[in-house]
Amino acid sequence: MDPAVKKQALRTFTYGLYVVMSKEDEVVNAFTANWLTQVSFEPALVAVSIENDADAAD
């Protein structure tokens, strides 16, 4: 990934409600998060806040 594009993408996160999705094979899971922050630039990592009893919908 182009480092300039990655930096721009990681800096655009603002406060709000986020939909976090993952896909393994053909199974897609999603959940909402109300807090997200950059943890590391290389590798690109973010941390999200999830309620303890939250389930990912599939």
UniProtKB/TrEMBL annotation:
Domain of life per record: Bacteria
Lineage: Bacteria, Bacillati, Chloroflexota, Ktedonobacteria, Ktedonobacterales
One GO MF term: oxidoreductase activity, acting on the CH-NH group of donors, NAD or NADP as acceptor
Entries under SUPFAM superfamilies matching the protein: FMN-binding split barrel (SSF50475)
Annotated Pfam families: Flavin_Reduct
Protein name: Flavin reductase like domain-containing protein
Ranges of residues in domain Flavin reductase like: 10-57
